[in-house]
Amino acid sequence: MAKGAYYGNQGEPRKFDPTFKGPIYNRGCTDILCCILFILALLGYFAVGILAWSQGDPRKVIYPTDSTGQFCGQAGTPLEKKPLLFYFNIMKCASPLVLLEFQCPTTQICVEKCPDKFMTLVNALKSQSDKTYYTQFCKEGVDMTKNAPQILSEGLCPSILFPSKNFTRRCLPALETMKGGVVVIGNETQFTVDQGEVINATDLLNAAKKSNVVVEARAVAMRIFEDYTQSWHWILLGLVIAMLISLIFILLLRFLAGVMVWVMIIMVIIVIGYGIFHCYMQYASLKGQAGSDVTIKDLGLQTDFSVYLQIQQTWLAFMIILCIVEAVILLLLIFLRKRLLIAIALIKEASKAIGHVMSSLFYPLLTYALMSLVIAYWAITAVFLSTSNEPIYKVFNTSNCSYSRATCNPATFNTSNVTTECPDAECLFAFYGGETLYHKWLIVFQFYNLFLFFWCVNFVIALGQVTLAGAFASYYWAFKKPDDMPAFPIFNSLGRALRYHTGTLAFGSLILAIVQVIRVVLEYLDQKLKGAQNKFAKFLLSCLKCCFWCLEKFIKFINRNAYIMVAIYGKNFCTSARDAFFLLMRNIVRVAVLDKVTDFLLFLGKLLIVGIVGICSFFFFTGKIKIAQDVTPALNYYWVPILTVVFGAYLIAHGFFSVYAMCVDTLFLCFLEDLERNDGTVDRPYFMPERLMATLKKSNQSPGVTRVAPKTAKI
Description:
This is Choline transporter-like protein 2 isoform X4. The chain is α+β, with helices and mostly antiparallel strands.
């Protein structure tokens, strides 16, 4: 038993077993009930997907819809060359009805282009060229030989056209704001329509805003989508570069682990030191400037955060914080220098283990492929579910009518009693919905889609952890490395995981998925209560969010170590989790120091890769690289591809470093068990590598030599 280990409620330490040589091959299936439940859940998931695909129509997300429910600009339809939506009377969009029905109570048609001039219907009928121009903004088949009152009474054409611009595929007035805040359209502040009504440009601005109340989010989404279409190939190139840098970094760690770890530590100290110097220089430069001595408390909360950078107290606070961080890091390095050496030894040994199991570096590709499949299935199913509603048409009118807002059928509306009682009523597309049994269960299907998404994602991650743990455990427990290792450790470990432990992986993933879904529900409730005044409810919700965040982190930690035990001993989830937890509790000091130090060192490596790729992508997409300015894509938001590349680079770096992290964690648990099982004698030799034994000042006794216990390093 290792010195410092204690018993109590932490379980009995591992006893010496002469037959134990690493991952057990003679094992049986575990957590069978959960395996069956997972299979049934997947079958249900496929059924939901098929049902959604048969009912959904993703065109509703891509294309705007006219008053008859047809999609503007859809390929293969008569409206293919008419991608823009035009409002007959956008002033009606200022009605509160927009906020209730999410639809403007005016006729909407698909047009090829937006109007670019002022024109009234009365004036357009006087000239053949103007009449031809005006016709493209009227309903199909309009007879322009009729007089204006007759055309307007039948709702065939708008009464007036404004200069408009395409905004999210909708023709909205081309409004501008001159100095003094005066709103104009074509340098005009107001104009008169055919009926003599005077309309202000400001009123049009309010109507345009109301007309866009539902599509503002979609506007941003469409612009982001356009940016992706313009830059997707450059994003892929950036991700490939991130993968190459990650691979080079891993290979360098294989041969220069100690040097690179110390370089990372020194770089962190230098960067923080530079931050302290920069804060001091900013603090000194503001000294004596007017207004720089204002305190943050006096300044209060400002939406423009750059204001805070103009006062001395801000830079003083930054400098104090960085000094504290620098001091803490230096003190940790001084007092934990021996444990840091052991952590570096673990990373070196992990590099050596990965060198003998090179296929482990390519395993994240399988994880990403499975993860992409899960994410794609979830996203497609979610889109089809959200667009599986049917078009609902309602009666819209301007006068009093008993049929107002009633559901109607556009095919039979003109022959119904509604037009007799309400001459000005129109049957317009209102929204997508439905009253069938399928539509009533739609929210349940969406929730099920989300829950299975979390379950499947966690299952894929768990499969990777068990597979890698089994491969690296076979390396550690091979007495003669690498001669005693199996020929294909990754494939052997993956086969054992799928054959015997699918239920165990599903069990651990299910627990984590339940907690994650609860967190999503809490976030949803938090959004709903943002405008509420109940302070106690907000406080309680914040406490619950914090508790479940901590619970999720704890479950991930337990699951990770439980999967290592599953890979080694082949027991069920609960037993493996208990054994792993007690083993860690018996060595809590080592866990708190060594494990977290190695995690921090690997995290620095990820940040280094993300920083390199992020800086390069920033200079490229902002056009700051002169030799690449000709190929830099024109974007609405340059931060869209930059953030995508940064996020993707972090995922890629995390994928490669997750192999390292899993290797370190597996070797660490095996190392703890090795200390409990063995004592270095001939009969009970340590399995740990010689480099790690030298760091710990331990050794194995040679046959025929009387063993003298060496002085043990405190860890």
